[in-house]
Amino acid sequence: MNTLSKIGMVPLVELRRVTKRYQIGEKPVIALKGIDFVIQPREFVAIWGPSGSGKSTLCNLIGMLDSPTTGNVLIDGEEVNGLTDNARSELRNRNIGFVFQSFNLVPVLSALENVMLPLQISGAPVAEARERALQRLAEVGLEEHVAHRPAKLSGGQQQRVAIARALVTDPALVIADEPTANLDSGNARRIIELMLKINSRQGTAFVFSTHDQRLLESVKRRVQMEDGVIGSDSMPPRSAQTRIAGTHP
Ligand SMILES: Nc1ncnc2c1ncn2[C@@H]1O[C@H](COP(=O)(O)OP(=O)(O)OP(=O)(O)O)[C@@H](O)[C@H]1O
């Protein structure tokens, strides 16, 4: 992120009157109907709502994986619409980490190699990539499992590898689209607590989506999606971020 967002002068993400329309054959689907939305540095935001309400579409636009039909998306104060594909990829790789519902780990690579991958793709020397990946895996509590391939890990452990991978490039924002959808309720809760802890300790901003209201108890900013608009049951942003017992700012 540039210095302006680091010192809080511009939001990390800003959506201005964003719409998204999909066309399947003859029939248009308006997935987002004019969204205004801001994520500030260090925020932890839950996007919740029923299936089909527009959560993934919103995450994809925030992560520049897709473009709006109308309206503007600004990342770190920079308007995304006018950028070339290369400039957009560069902005994304520099600033944003992703966690997906199906973990998306490379099956033939170990946990360590999976986490090293984003750094190696960006040209970091192997020794440095290894050191930073080991550090991230330790932060998510997997130092004992670094040599295991994904198939040897539980769903919760695989998602923790994915979180370590999302964090390894030190992004200002991690987008986690339904990160707990394939986990049982205990592991789902542990994943949210882990993300809250990283947010609290390191200041990484998180936006995560879920249809499970039970996961929202400890999240202070909630954005409810309802048929393509932000619903009335949203909780406003808070200047102070959530702290988990035993963690430090
Ligand atoms: N690629 C696409 N092509 C056509 N329609 C789409 C596409 N992606 C999403 N939609 C439609 O847009 C609307 C919003 O979908 P979206 O996936 O954003 O909702 P969601 O809240 O994330 O749902 P879920 O929780 O089931 O993932 C739905 O009506 C969906 O069918």
From TrEMBL:
SMART domains: AAA
Gene3D superfamilies hit by this protein: P-loop containing nucleotide triphosphate hydrolases
Residue stretches of biased makeup (Polar residues): 239-249
Keywords: ATP-binding, Nucleotide-binding, Transport
Transport keyword on record: yes
Chain ranges of the ABC transporter domain: 13-249
GO MF term list: ATP binding
Region annotation (Disordered) ranges: 229-249
Alphabetized Pfam families for the sequence: ABC_tran (PF00005)
Database matches in PANTHER family: ABC TRANSPORTER ABCH.1, IMPORT ATP-BINDING PROTEIN
Name used for this protein in its record: ABC transporter ATP-binding protein
UniProt source species: Azotobacter bryophylli
Organism placement in taxonomy: Bacteria, Pseudomonadati, Pseudomonadota, Gammaproteobacteria, Pseudomonadales
